[in-house]
Amino acid sequence: MKEISNEQANLPAQQASQKAYPRLSGTVQDPGRAGDSAPPARQRPQAVGSLTYPRERRLTERAEYLVCYDQGRRYFTKHFIVFVLPRPDGRLPSRLGTGVGKKIGKAVARNRVKRLLKEFFRLNQHILGPGIDIVVVAKRGIAWKTFHLDLITEELVPVLNRAKSRFSQDRKLLCPAQRSARTDS
Question: How many CB atoms are closer than 10 A to CB 36?
Answer without folding.
Answer: 7
